[in-house]
Write a structure and sequence with these properties.
591 residues; alpha+beta; two-stranded antiparallel sheet; 21 helices; elongated
């Protein structure tokens, strides 16, 4: 969903939601408490605290009543001007309530003119801003979730296609292959030794038969299969995603993209600082000091705002960093102006404002501006098509997850190969030798032994055999299931002849989803579609008549999840639609 730019166009309608207003009321009440406490209203601290609590509850109640009124009259969208007027009236009601409570609790208030200035600032700027942000908070969160998902997908893709990962694939493959070969060589040596141990065929067979059970290979296959049940890394990425930690770790990258693609305007910096500093100046400055120093401060603020924009747009490789430093420095302008004024006219009543402007204001301004730059819906919308870059921590976590998934999947393939191809061949050899012994056929016996010894010289010859086209691969994966489930298949003509390494992964996906439909969903019929989705992607979609619905939240990530993640970089889903289960997966496959 595209969200309009939250600027200061007074005529543009915005969604209205008071969800954030109570939080803002609490923050403002706390700020007022600090101000009153610093001004010496501490001779009755208990009354001050109690008054502020009652006033906070009263303001929250007024906010709720105003919101209910908007809802009753179907005012779900208002322009900035209307919100500003509403905010001023809301703040005025709060000030009147404040005055009544102050008279009851004996709390001294600042002059009406000072309070009026604060009412105008809070009502015309802060109130509309937080009402508008509240109205779009769901869209903001949704867009950031989409950003998270795209970021993880992009990071997985870069990790899976990187030279480093290809080298890693080779290392894992070589490690399994080396151990497999060592086991086969040991078996070959034992068979060769027993074959030449002498004696008749029956004696030789009695020595050879236990070896042909392939106990070591069987143990090796079980170890490979057990490694696919590891649960340490498989949930790591899922715990890491959709968390506030990701936002903070990605903040600088998001901020850089936002500044480059959708920078704040000069007026945004100026208005933010003016809105932050003006209430403090109204509370603590004398009329003379305010009238003289405030215009000077405004000129400096506008000047530094222009300088910030110019710095961010410069060709310097450190432009973004220098801009951030300048934003922080700009927050010290009120303190500098105050120090200069104290050199001219010392006023002990306004000294406390130095503490506020020196400690709180620069940090508040810096954080507010940087968050505004990133969290503006328009900024998040504009980074949708960016070349997403993950922080080092996320890259490492994704790399570890991909490595774990690849290792598990490859281990499973080898386990199936050893169990299905090798042990089956050894079992068949044992039966042939037994027939030869019973027939007393030494020639058949020796030929069978030479055949198995030759086979053990290159036992991996049939592992990951020659590549076939997409249509043949899918047909071979469906063949074992025909008769168990009714399958209808549609493959786009444009992709039937694709032939590359990714085609095998398509076959694995098909095999796994069919298996899941039968074993977990108890389906008897499935409609399968493999279609082109752009120049470099295909979409696999299946709809079955499963009687058992998939779990809403899958807490157990098995080998099927690993296969789907490796193939699609996480771009897959399974949903229940009426009495059917729909599976959808998108993956990149080069033509």
């Amino acid at each position: 969903m595209r969200i309009p730019n939250l600027g200061f166009n007074t005529k543009t309608p915005y969604k209205v939601d008071f969800a954030l207003v109570p939080a803002v009321i609490v923050l403002i009440e706390f700020a007022i408490f600090i101000t009153q406490f610093s001004q010496g209203v501490n001779n009755s601290l208990g009354n001050l605290v109690l008054m502020r609590i009652i006033h906070t509850l009263g303001m929250v109640l007024i906010a709720i009543l105003v919101w209910k009124g908007f809802q009753k009259f179907n005012k779900s969208e208002l322009n900035f001007q209307t919100l500003a007027i509403t905010g001023v009236l809301f703040s005025l009601a709060g000030d009147l309530t404040h005055g009544i409570l102050a008279s009851i609790f004996g709390i001294e208030l600042v002059s009406f003119y000072r309070r009026l200035g604060i009412i105008l600032i809070q009502g015309s700027l802060w109130f509309p801003a937080f009402v508008i942000i509240g109205g779009y908070r769901k869209e903001i969160f949704q867009q950031f979730k989409e950003y998270e998902n795209r970021l993880v997908i992009a990071t997985r893709f870069r990790g899976r296609t990187s030279n480093e990962f290809r080298e890693l694939q080779g290392e894992i493959q070589e490690g399994i292959r080396k151990e497999f070969f060592a086991t086969c060589i040991d078996l070959k040596n034992e068979l060769d030794k027993n074959m030449h141990a002498g004696g008749n065929l029956a004696d030789q067979f009695s020595l050879i038969k236990p070896q042909l059970s392939g106990q070591k290979l069987r143990t090796f296959s079980r170890l490979l299969e057990s490694s696919t049940s590891s649960n340490d890394a498989k949930t790591l990425l899922f715990r890491y995603r959709h968390s506030i930690i990701l936002f903070f770790q990605q903040f600088r990258i998001i901020y850089t993209s936002a500044v480059q693609k959708a920078p704040l305007r000069k007026n945004s910096y100026s208005l933010m600082l003016i809105a932050l500093v003006t209430p403090t100046l109204i509370n603590f400055y004398s009329i003379t000091e305010f009238l003289i120093s405030y215009p000077v401060l405004l000129l400096l603020i506008f000047g530094f705002s222009s300088l910030i924009i110019k710095t961010q747009k410069s060709d310097s490789p450190n432009a973004i960093r220098n801009g951030s430093i300048l934003i922080f420095v700009t927050g010290f302008l009120p303190m500098i102006i105050k120090f200069l004024w104290l050199l001219i006219s010392y006023d002990p009543q306004s000294v406390f404002s130095i503490i506020l402007t020196a400690l709180a204001l620069p940090l508040a301004f810096f954080v507010s501006v940087e968050l505004l730059q990133v969290l503006r819906p328009s900024a998040l919308t504009l980074i949708r098509n960016d070349d997403l870059r993950a922080n080092r921590s996320l890259e490492n976590k994704v790399r570890n997850v991909i490595r774990e998934e690849f290792a598990r999947n490859l281990s499973h393939e080898w386990a199936v190969f050893v169990h299905g191809k090798i042990l089956t061949r050894l079992a068949a050899t044992s039966l042939k030798l037994e027939v030869a012994v019973k027939a007393g056929d030494s020639e058949m016996f020796n030929e069978t032994m030479q055949s198995v010894l030759s086979f053990l010289d290159s036992p991996d010859a049939d592992f990951q055999t020659e590549l076939c086209d997409l249509e043949t691969e899918i047909d071979s994966r469906l063949s074992p299931w025909r008769g168990l489930i009714e399958v209808s298949v549609h493959i786009d003509e444009t992709i039937k002849a694709i032939r590359n390494l990714r085609v095998r992964e398509v076959g694995q996906v098909i095999e796994e989803l069919i298996s899941n439909s039968i074993r977990h969903g108890k389906a008897s019929k499935i409609d399968l579609r493999i279609t082109s989705s752009g120049d470099r992607e295909i979409e696999i979609e299946s709809v079955d008549d499963a009687t058992v619905a998939p779990p809403r939240i899958n807490k157990n990530f098995g080998l099927g999840t690993v296969i789907f993640n490796l193939a699609s970089d996480g771009r897959w889903s399974i949903t229940r639609e009426g009495s059917s289960t729909r599976f959808r997966l998108v993956m990149e496959v080069e033509r």
